[in-house]
Specification:
Helices cover 63% and strands 0% of the residues. By secondary structure, the protein is mostly helical. The chain is globular, with a radius of gyration of 11 Å.
Length: 67
């Protein structure tokens, strides 16, 4: 498992634990970062561009700082 997958899992956990609308939250995030977090699997390679766009989108949408 890589950073990209871990970050996607953190985001999905954040959505669930804060009882956010799953479809709206994931949709807004996908529009900002360019891909669906639910489609990233543990075997997907880390892509620095995707990681950075995901981190920025998480900050913008959820005020979430991924580490």
């Amino acid at each position: 498992m890589g950073k990209l997958y871990d970050y996607c899992q953190q985001i999905q956990q954040h959505i669930e634990s804060n009882h956010l609308d799953v479809f709206k939250s994931r949709g807004e995030l996908a529009l900002r970062c360019g891909f669906l977090v639910s489609l990233i699997g543990p075997d997907d390679p880390d892509d620095t561009q995707k990681i950075e766009s995901l981190r920025q989108a998480a900050r913008d949408v959820f005020n979430l700082d991924l580490r």
